[in-house]
Amino acid sequence: MNQALFIVWRESVEALLVIGILQAWADQQQRAQRLLGFLWAGVALGLLLSALLALLILFAGEAMSGAGNEWFQAGMALVASLLMVQMVGWMHRHARSLKDDLRRHADRQLARQGGIGLLLLAMLAVSREGSETVVFLYGAGARLHGTQLGLFAIGGVAGLVLSGLSIALLHSSRRFVSWRRFFAISEALLLLLAAGLLVSASERIGGQLLAWDLPEMAYSLVGDALWDSSAWLSDSHGPGSFLAGFAGYRASPSALTLLVLCGYWLSVGCWLLQRRTGAQACPA
């Protein structure tokens, strides 16, 4: 539920921000009402494309069974994790200039293609956010069933509602909650969630590798727990369960899980340090 809430909230805020910028731009143009019609048509088409992608992914998942389905789900979780890290980098590079960039693109599209250009710009922007949402949600919730799946869906709806409230809050109280602070907090949460999805993908891959004829050391690497800290912080209930779903915490991690987490956070830490200092922080 928490994963779905954050994913939908974060992606919806970004989509609403883009739509708001384009709407404000269209209001300042001649024939504003006509342009707004093209804008909302583009938004609708973007949502339709995202829905088609969701159906395609669900169909592909249902069409596979057994090991094929497990590999597909692992691949989707891995893609979702990588996309989240890529999104953090993209937002860091473009957050400050997003408004000016969108207005510049809108001016260019209007000059070249008229209202159709604005429609295409809105469609591409919304379908990008929607497609990311679809991939993230499938990567996070593919294994859920019954009550857990219902709570996951409720979390998604709650995230959509929360995104509207967040946009209103950010526009009305910039003195207290700045866009820069909002994006910094959401970047940190995205990196945590990406770690959780990466661990989930590695465990699914590890589960499939256990069925292969591998050396004994490989089985130990994938299947044996290095320790058990469930007496202090269980990953099946309470705060540990939240950390397990959101950030990849495991009370009884295998060597593979530990290597994946350490490699991920070492890479992210080097990247963040390089971003802050402007120099190469880690060896290639």
TrEMBL record:
Question: Transmembrane residues, as ranges?
Answer: 38-59, 71-90, 110-127, 147-170, 182-201, 255-273
A Gene Ontology cellular-component term = high-affinity iron permease complex
The protein's matches in Pfam families, at most eight in alphabetical order, are given as: FTR1
Q: Does the keyword Membrane apply?
A: yes
Which cellular compartments is it found in?
Membrane
Regarding the membrane, this protein is recorded as: Multi-pass membrane protein
Which UniProt keywords are listed?
Membrane, Transmembrane, Transmembrane helix
Q: Molecular function (GO) terms listed?
A: ferrous iron transmembrane transporter activity
Q: Which family does it belong to?
A: Belongs to the oxidase-dependent Fe transporter (OFeT) (TC 9.A.10.1) family.
UniProt xrefs under PANTHER family: IRON TRANSPORTER FTH1, PLASMA MEMBRANE IRON PERMEASE
Q: What is this protein called?
A: Iron permease FTR1 family protein
Which source organism does the UniProt entry give? Pseudomonas wadenswilerensis
